[in-house]
Amino acid sequence: MSCVAKILVVLDPNTIEQKALNRALHLARISGASVTLMVSIYDFSYEMTTMLAATERDAMRNSLLYDRKVWIGDLLEDYDTQGLAIEINVVWHNRPFEAIIECAIAGGHDIIVKATHPREGLASLFFTPTDWHLLRKAPCLVLLVKEHQWPSGGKVLAAIHTTGEHDHHCSLNNRITATALKFAQCLNADVHLVNAFPGAPITIAAEIPEFDSSNYREAIAANHQQALREHAEPFAIAESKLHVEEGLPEQVIPSLAEQLDAELVVLGTIGRTGFTAALLGNTAEHVIERINCDLLAVKPEGFQSPVKV
């Protein structure tokens, strides 16, 4: 069972080390998938050439596109691509995330592979980078690559929300776990499941003196453990690989990933957009900043990207 069939890898012309390319070629070898290498380019000086003839403007743009294709060809000379089906796609677009998603949709790709880059300061909070747009709006799997290697016999950690009362929570949980198992099979890895649950609200203890926070915590933990066992049973995941931890997901998931030395964290993202999302972000966006391994984001069944081809 192959974990992916068509990989879209986003190259970064501004860096020497192509982490996404390394990961994508590795994934292609172990899964038998085809690979499309893409770069989205746009030169804003092109906007200043409106006084030129259309043929001259086209020649300028085509020259830039050609130079980038040559760069990709030169880049591939340093990699072992024997036996791999590889295509090159250089796109002229002034919004990289839209170019990536449009390419993924048009090419029928089932995963986008992109390297992550640390961002500092308030810019990462108020101005969402391409990574965040892909997490929210890409219709397929999104693999954000960090430095951690993918050794054989490693661990894949899938984050599950077991207490959802709606069917879409159960459906997304199943998609997350099934995806984690597929990748684990390709990677020869073990799958662990994690579920985070909140602690007792401090205000309750203050307002109700007789409130027993210890019993409350134990009851909540037992409820989550039972729910996680019921979820894991159809997937034949052993109880020793089920983890129920108290705390926020963005704290629990990175901490457990580090303890397990996981090579991949798999979680769901609901594609929230708007001003609230820009300020708060999704769980995936908080987690990616804290984990030291790759993150694989899974969309709910039937998700429709707001980006249209």
3D structure, described in words:
The chain is of the alpha/beta class. The protein folds into 2 domains: 1-115, 3-Layer(aba) Sandwich (Rossmann fold); 148-309, Rossmann fold. Helices cover 42% and strands 19% of the residues. The protein is built from 11 helices and 10 strands. A 10-stranded mixed sheet has the order 3-2-1-4-5-10-9-6-7-8, with helices on both faces. The longest helix has 23 residues, at 54-76. The radius of gyration is 22 Å and the shape is elongated.
**How many domains, as an integer?**
2
* Beta-strand segment tally: 10
For the terminal residues, how far apart are their CA atoms?
Answer: 30 Å
What percent of the residues sit in helical stretches (DSSP H or I)? 40-55%
Strand content bin: 15-25%
Q: How many helices does DSSP assign?
A: 11
Low-confidence stretches: 122-127, 275-280
Helices and strands, with pairings:
Elements lengths: L5 E5 L8 H13 L2 E8 L12 H23 L9 E7 L3 H12 L3 E5 L7 H4 L3 H8 L3 E5 L9 E5 L7 H21 L2 E8 L4 H6 L5 H20 L9 E5 L2 H12 L3 E5 L6 H6 L2 H6 L5 E5 L11
Parallel strand pairs: 1-2, 1-4, 2-3, 4-5, 6-7, 6-9, 7-8, 9-10
Antiparallel strand pairs: 5-10
What are the defining features of this structure?
309 residues; alpha/beta; Rossmann fold; 2 domains; ten-stranded mixed sheet; 11 helices; 10 strands; elongated
